[in-house]
Amino acid sequence: MGPFLRRRLLAFILGLAACFAIPSTADAYTVLARGSHPLVRGRHAILIGNKAYAPSRAPDQVKQVIWSANQIRHKPYKWGGGHGSWYDDGYDCSGAVSYALHGAGLLDYPLDSRGFMQWGDPGRGRWIDVWATNGHAYMVVAGLRFDTAGAGESGPRWRPEPAWEQHYWVRHPPGL
Q1: CATH number for position 91
Q2: pTM given for the model
Q3: pLDDT per position as a tens digit, 88-99
């Protein structure tokens, strides 16, 4: 096969592959706003880079939880972090969840993971689930997990991988 035919075949294969390619997260959603209050159209939050974009159809408190969590998503893990002061140089699991919920007016004071086992209403919510055990807490907001445990860096982060949900209590803010 000559060079001309090889180039034509390669162009055909690449064109065919592009027809079946899955769009990137940013391309699959319409970004409505960037900056400190990022939004995307719809009912599900998305992760672009390491920042969560709140869904436009979510209640304002859900958007505020996401935007608050974004403010500390780069902080390191610090045992007890976020419990003595809302503004800390690092956060532990329950301190990070507390911070994000407080940013939306859903929590007046930080809770530890055991406190989250009794907080709010039992079961899954429509928009926010807080998962807690005797030693760990994380939350899922509009479909995205905010957690200090997971692959890669430690500390509060939006995590793309699924969480371990066995033996956790799940709670949610009333109405959400």
Answers
A1: 3.90.1720.10
A2: 0.82
A3: 999 999 999 999
